[in-house]
Amino acid sequence: MLGGLITNKKGLAGVILLLVLILSAVFAPALSEYNPNRRAGGPHVSPNAEHVLGTTRVGKDVWTQLLYGGRTSLAVGFIAGIVATVIGLFVGIASGYFGGKVDEILSFFVNVVLVLPALPLIIVIAAFIEEASPPVIGLVLALTGWGWSARTIRTVTLSLRTKEFILAAELLGEKKWRIIIMELFPNMLSFVVGGFVLATIYAILAEAGLEFIGLGDPSSVTWGTMLFWAQKNSALQTGAWWEVWPECIAIMVTGAALVLVNFAVDEITSPQLRAGRHIPAIRKFLAKRGRSTDVF
């Protein structure tokens, strides 16, 4: 799979962007000498050689906050996405493959999770404990965000369980756990990755949105709290665009990178999409030889 991502242009671009974002957050102390919570210069200093992305109204270095904020925002997004995907995968496969009472019970829990409103739930928790920290937001998003993934995986499992290779494995006496791991899972990889991408993007955006409207912990450094303080300090109104755009672009780039990886996985795991990648080259080859390309 990794080799396929590297040879796929979309996958390679997505992996490179994700690596840049993750490594920048991990090695934040090496990339900035300032403390994200302390004043590093004058108020609203525009980008210059000393402060690459300028400073905030209270003099904090925006570049430093962007790096350290990426640590928390990416961690919340990826952990919430992984937890929601793993829960959805187990529940969806068990529900679709075993059927019967197992399907009825698990489908009931899936339906309950689907109607649970994650954002209002976080708002209630934030009001109850006065503020919701990034880990609390991530936990709620993970525990309420696996429903759609489970529903999709269940549907895919129901369609695969009657395929010849599954029936053949059962007739040969293969253990159910081995059939699930070796036969079912590889054939639904694109759906699993798609669910993970959507859950991760949703978690990052939800965390940033909740913190932007003031329901998070304002003392923490995340991309969402950066937007919160920029709005509180009227950054755009005063012309301090550098206090708003960096974190917005970081969120957009993260989402774009994940979507590119998702597209690449779809192409790698789908024979039809793999073949579609070569159609332009085939058209060009036939056109050079004066042959008809109407078949495509």
Primary descriptors:
296 residues, mainly alpha, MetI-like fold, 14 helices, 72% helix, elongated
Write structural notes for this entry.
With 296 residues, this protein is mostly helical. The protein has one domain: MetI-like (MetI-like fold). The protein is built from 14 helices and no strands. Helix 2 (9-26) packs across helix 13 (245-269).
The separation of the N and C termini measures: 28 Å
The description of the largest β-sheet is: none
Please state the oligomeric state of the protein chains shown. single chain
CATH architecture: Orthogonal Bundle
**What percent strand?**
under 5%
Class inferred from helices and paired strands: mainly alpha
- Mean of pLDDT: 83
The arrangement of helices and strands along the chain is HHHHHHHHHHHHHH
* Tally of DSSP β-strands: 0
The name of the CATH superfamily reads MetI-like
The DSSP helix count reads 14
Which CATH class? Mainly Alpha
Helix content: over 70%
Question: What topology emerges from the helices and strands here?
Answer:
Layout: H1 2-7, H2 9-26, H3 28-31, H4 62-98, H5 100-115, H6 118-129, H7 134-144, H8 147-160, H9 164-171, H10 176-184, H11 189-212, H12 223-232, H13 245-269, H14 271-288
Describe what is shown at a glance.
The chain has 296 residues and is mainly α. The chain has helices at residues 2-7, 9-26, 28-31, 62-98, 100-115, 118-129, 134-144, 147-160, 164-171, 176-184, 189-212, 223-232, 245-269, 271-288.
